[in-house]
Amino acid sequence: MSKEPNTKSINEIINIELQVYWDKYWIKRSLLYMCRGYDCLEEGDDYSKLKPTTHFCIADLDILPGNTSFYSSYYLMEEKTHQIYSKNLSIGVLQLQYIDNATEVDSNNNLVFWAKLFNAKTWEEFKDIACDNPVIKEVGDLMLMMNMDQKEREILEGQRRYREQVASQYTAGYTDAEEKLTPVIDKLQEKVDTANQALAEKDATIANDKEIIAQLKAEIEDLKSEK
């Protein structure tokens, strides 16, 4: 859920999405969103106008296999030396379910505070957390108003990304089924190939037998004619 920024008046592009369901292609999609944000040049612009771009994902499920960090930052870097190629492209992942693994740096950056807001189960719990922060309380009131309006929620979600996600889920289901059924199909095909080979061998034996019989008949006829 994000809005296209006015890149003429900002020095950094930040895209934020909330991931509330499992998506097999989330990593590929996050790269796409990050690159779309970075590609902000208009015709005639030079490369100096490119903005540092960060794609933030807030999730409450394991979208990074084997990673139990509360917050993770990803950059392009050299494989052996880990030298960062550029900080102009990055992906940040906030995993709400691992809030107990938050570091002191995470707390100082207010990530724990935001995680508690997102983890709030009720509107009352949200207000209690945000009571000392008037700006967050105002944002919460706006979120409540927009969530009560189906049309506003649809606009916020974005039709383009909705179509992409639906298509991705369909493809994920197809590829999952293909991965499960391919070994079964391969085994069946192997049995069919074995049966076809056996039939071919039988056909060859029959043909050879017919040839032998024909030769014997010819020899018998020759013997008859000699008498």
What does this structure look like?
This protein has 227 residues and is α/β, with parallel strands linked by helices. The protein is 55% helix and 15% strand. The protein has seven helices and four strands. The chain has a four-stranded mixed beta sheet, with helices on one face. Strand 3 (71-77) and strand 4 form a beta hairpin. The longest helix has 68 residues, at 159-226. The protein is elongated and about 120 Å long. Mean pLDDT is 80; it is low at 1-8.
By DSSP (H or I, 4+ residues per run), the number of helices equals 7
Q: Tell me the number of strands.
A: 4
Largest beta sheet, briefly? 4 strands, mixed
Class of secondary structure makeup: alpha/beta
Q: Output mean pLDDT.
A: 80
Major sheet strand order: 1-2-4-3
- What is the string of helix and strand elements? EHEEEHHHHHH
Our estimate of the beta-strand percent is 5-15%
Low-confidence stretches: 1-8
Radius of gyration: 33 Å
Percent in helix: 55-70%
Distance between the termini: 102 Å
User: How would you describe the shape?
Assistant: elongated
